[in-house]
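Protein in question filed below.

…
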Amino acid sequence: MFIGAHDATGPSWSKQYRSVVFAHNARQADISRAALAKVAEEKNRPTTTAIESEFKFWLAEDYHQKYQLRRYQQIDAELQAIYPNLKDYVNSTATMRLNAWFANWGSPEQLGISIDELGLTKDTQRSLAKTLRLE
């Protein structure tokens, strides 16, 4: 899914913004290599997406977290009040699903968004429904 969601042959701006697959085992690395080979063949150019098996992962700065969601200040402010700890906010299923929706990565149905289960006020629920074009 990741490889098909971006241009795996495009250049990277820097190491921190490069395209990379973090493979947790040999099977994941093999699947990724095969998918990248298919992309290279289809586009008739080499891929630039790296595959790494040994890696350390650091959480990006808070202003990078849920970037698409943060554009909707009323909704985001309520979610940050519900999840005041950055780790809880980042790991929240609700914030993940809404960020994915706002980034156009699926429909509310595909992402399992149930507005009345997000813990938002009625006013923000109405605003979200309008934003999601559910009204």
User: Anything to note?
Assistant: The mean pLDDT is 88. Helices lie at 26-43, 73-82, 86-91, 93-102, 108-111, 122-131. Residues 26-43 form the longest helix (18 residues).
